[in-house]
């Protein structure tokens, strides 16, 4: 069958190059905006129409027809934009801090193998795009003239380079220490006579936003049932440096965002040996009170420094994929990340039985995997209950995660394993890009955070808070008395004290994180070069009053 003449024309180098550029440009627009995927070919056609109108790729004279060795300055900027678009398509919101942290903390045994195929296709597309740009620049004098300016625009507008430049400037200039002055050392002033146990369930990416039944149906319903027996917090936002698993766990257990070691690490290309060694966290405090502490997660503890964090902060038992998979009845019943949640909860139930037999107060932290972006990992127990999984719908996985959490708590309670126990159910962070992404970003999003157990009131409370406020809230829920209801940057939501977000707003707190390194140095004390303190910084007054450069009009923090 002969190729139609119009289609044959598209196979010529000029139109092939313009078509590739148009398709890549259209794809970038659909990823970076809310433009629907079906608009991609329309955007490419608009580009081709402009190419025909302005005769792009056609020489204006034989003398200017082709420059074979013309260097294209825009190749690197385009490649960097390609990387940013890939990260955006993969995660929804690009967090440079997460990239830096995982590079240093380690990415062994990760579950992202499903992205290998996508990365390969992205690489092919980028190669085709760069080749097309080279062809266009070498064959069209007008593009040769404008291309260096295009390179500068692409560099200046890339959020990746902007973020790196901002953090680099902060490290060089060391401006201000507002966040550091808000930090309150976590201290237990008084302990309850009968210390309660603590069960902390992190539900991977199961944010409270899913509770909106108009957008997400019954996916979150089982968590709503759990919440009917305890205290549910609404408005727990995600501030910078708390948007991935380790960052969410550190924020909620240490009261501080995870500001990566980054350039502060004195051995840039060697793995971290400790994770946030400069601050005391939940495990440190409970261990000093005689608690037996355990962590169980379906993924490897080697990934992102999870094992380093828990072993370095007071935990006696730290179990992940490498420890639990050999104990499965069917060791092949695992996913890319590790154990399915039905298996993990079975092991968690066994650990609860063991802890209850020790005669000591205990704390157990559990991290699930069912809700992990982009499509989740629903367990076989959910498939038996919910029917076949289409491999795409994240709401199926959200429902699975919620149901398994409820079913686990009911089993544990029926065995009497949760007597005198404070139960915390929380998301580790907001979800990354998933099938319901456009519905999720329609409005404000917040994390799941609920408390259950003796002395916990039943109801709902709306606060402008963040995951750093979970830390002091859990301590007070357990009956501990802490200094001014504060720990780290967090404020107990059980108190009437205002949170940082209520006093200063989310944007202001995020801005300070991007512009300061004093708190970052505290987190990584011992890994970073020692900071030179001035006499003024050593005085008690400096710990209370902001320096002139930090003055913003807000009243000083009540406690330093």
UniProtKB/TrEMBL annotation:
Subcellular location, principal: membrane
Classification via Pfam families: Sulfatase (PF00884)
InterPro entries: Alkaline_phosphatase_core_sf, OpgB/LTA_synthase_biosynth, Sulfatase_N
Keywords: Cell membrane, Membrane, Transmembrane, Transmembrane helix
Membrane topology: Multi-pass membrane protein
Residues that span the membrane, as ranges: 15-34, 78-103, 115-137, 149-165
Source superkingdom: Bacteria
Gene3D superfamilies from the UniProt entry: Alkaline Phosphatase, subunit A (3.40.720.10)
Positions of region (Disordered): 523-560
Domain Sulfatase N-terminal: 273-479
Compartmental location: Cell membrane
PANTHER family: LIPOTEICHOIC ACID SYNTHASE, PHOSPHOGLYCEROL TRANSFERASE I
Protein's UniProt name: Sulfatase-like hydrolase/transferase
Organism: Billgrantia ethanolica
